[in-house]
C-alpha cells in the first residue's frame, strides 16, 4: 500500500501546525484511499521518524515524502 508523508520544517509558531493540518486534510480528500500523515524536522514531537512509523504501522510499504517548507522555521 502507498502512503504520503507531508514533511514541514517546523516552527515555534504553533498556528503553522493548524495550517498544515488543514492542508493535509485537503490532500486526504483528494486521495481517500491513501493514508496521509504529517511530520516536522524540528519543534514538534511529530518528527520524521514518528510520521514514517505511523504510515508503516498502518500498512504502507511505499511512502512518498512531500517537502512542505513554506513556513518560517
Give an overview in words.
With 73 residues, the protein is of the alpha/beta class. The protein contains 2 helices and 3 strands. It has a 3-stranded parallel beta sheet with strand order 2-1-3, with helices on both faces. Strand 1, helix 1 and strand 2 form a beta-alpha-beta unit. The longest helix is centred in the N-terminal third of the chain and has 16 residues. The protein is globular, with a radius of gyration of 12 Å. The model has no long low-confidence stretch (mean pLDDT 93).
Summarize the structure.
The protein is α/β, with parallel strands linked by helices and 73 residues long. The chain has helices at 15-30, 48-57; strands at residues 2-8, 36-40, 62-68. It starts with a strand and ends in a 5-residue tail after the last strand.
Fraction in beta strands: 25-35%
- In sequence order, what are the helices and strands, one letter per element? EHEHE
Strand line-up in the sheet with most strands: 2-1-3
Q: Any low-confidence stretches, pLDDT <50, length ≥5?
A: none
- Percent of residues in helices comes to 25-40%
